[in-house]
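User: Show me sequence and structure for the first protein, then do the same for the second.

Assistant: Starting with the first protein.
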Amino acid sequence: MKATVCLPTYNERENLEKMVRALGAHDVDVLVADDNSPDGTGEIADRLAAELDYVSVLHRPRKEGLGPAYLAAFRHLLTGDSELILEMDCDFSHDPADVPRLIAACEDGADVALGSRYVSGGGTRNWGLVRRIISWGGSFYARAILGLDVRDLTGGFKCFRRAVLETLDLDAIHSKGYAFQIETTYRAAKRGFRIEEVPIVFVDRTEGTSKMSRTIFLEAVLRVPVLRATVR
C-alpha cells in the first residue's frame, strides 16, 4: 500500500533534512507542507524534492496552525494515489523508525493507527512532571467528555487509511492547534472506523522551538465540549 507522510513545517531548518532522509529508509513518500517559514525551511524542502524522488512540497502562503496545514496536505494527497496517509512531527519527537509499525497496523485491519504514549509499552522522555501531568490530563479530559476508549487523544503520530479521510467532512474541521488531533480521531470514531493505538515513546525536541502556546491549549479545552455537542 502506497504510504505518504505529511510533514507540516514552520521554522524547522535544523530538523527537516535529517527527518526526510530518515524517512527515506522506510519506503514511504514524504509531503512537506511549509507555512512560508522565514528561516528558509521551504527552500530546503525544494532542494530535497529536486534531489529525492520520494519528496514533494506544498507551499502555503502563511502560518495558520497545525490543523489547516494538515487539511491542505490531506486534500492534496487525496487527488493522488496514496492509500495510507500519515501525520508526524518534523522535530524527531516521533521516531521515524516507528512509521512501519503504524503502517503495519493499518495493513492488518486498523482504519486509523495512532502512536500512543499512554498504552502499555508507550511513554515520554525528557519531560518534567508538570508537562507530564498537563499532557496526561488533557487526554483524560477529552476522553471523559467525548466518551472514547482511546488513551492518547492528543497524539499527533497517526496513519489513516485513505477511506477515512475521504469519508470525514474535512471542511467541517476548524481546529487549528492540538485540538485538531482530538477532533480528527473523534470524527473517525463517530463514523465507526476502527482505531488502534500503537505504543510509542515520545521524545522532546532537541533542536528548534516548540509551537505550543496558551492559545493552542485553551482551544483544545474549549473545543472538546463543542465536539461532543455538535458531531454526530
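Switching to the second protein now.
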Amino acid sequence: MNRDINTASAGTSPLVSVLMTSYNRERYIGSAIQSVLASTFKDFELIIVDDGSKDETVNIANAFAADDKRVRVYINEKNLGDYPNRNKAASYAKGKYIKYVDSDDYIYPWGLQVMVETMEQFPEAALGFCSMEQNFKKIFPFVLNPKEAYEYHYMGPGLFKRAPLSAIIRRDVFESYGGFKPIRMAGDFEMWQRLAQKCSIVLMPQGMVWYRCHDAQEVNDFSAFEQVYEDLKVAYLNSKDFPLGKEVAERIKSREKANNRRWMIRGLLKLDFKTAKIFYKNLRTYRIPSAFDID
C-alpha cells in the first residue's frame, strides 16, 4: 500500500472503523472513547451506536463527537440487542477494517497500530485475533489456514471463543458473510467458525486490549448460555464444510461426549444438580439434531 497507515488522509475513507455499541454504560463509555482517541494510530473513525440507553450514555458520547470530527454517534429507534446492534454499527463503517471496542472496555494506545500493521502484513487474512496465550512453537504473529484454525481450536489451546474486542476484521469479508447472526452471547463464536471454514486468520500476541469485568455484564450468567455454545459446536462439527473431515469430526464428538459425561457424573456425585443438568443437556446435544442449521 502506498498510503501511510499512521496518518489520516484528507478526503479519503479511514483505514479503520472502530465500532462501539452502547446501552446504559454511563459509568464506562467515557474511558472507552478516550482509549480509542488516545491511539497512536490516527487513521480511524469511531462510530458509536446506542441501543436506547436510559441514562447519560448518549450525552457523554455526543460531548466527544462535538470535540472530535472522527466520532459519530447514532441512536437506534428501537432496541436491537447485542449482535444486531453490532451489525448496525458495521453498516455505518467506511474503513477497510472494522474493530469493535465495547463501551465498557479499553484499547491500549498501541493496540490499533499493531493490529492494523499486522493485518497489512498478512493480506491473505480476513480476520485477526489478539489476546492469544503464548504459543510455544511459533512466535506471533502468524497465519492459520482453515484446517490449521480448526485444529488450533479443537486440538489445541482454543480459538473461537474470542470476544469481538479481541478481533479485527476486513470489512469486505464481514459484509460478504452477512455479519453476525442474532445469537445471544454466542454470535461471535458462531461467526468465527463460519469465517474460518473458508478464510485465513492471523494470530497476534496479548497486550492490545483490556476487558472490563463488572456486575452488569450478561456474561456473568454464562451458564444460561452453555447449551447455545454446545449446539453451535455440534452444528459445525457436523457441517459438510468442516475443514478437518468427517472422521476427525467424529473423534472430536466422541471426546466431547466423554467429557460431558464425566462432568455430569462428577456433578451428581457432589450433589451439584445444577452442574449435572448443564452437562446432561450438553450430552443430549450429541444425540439429537442441533438447534442450528449451518449448511
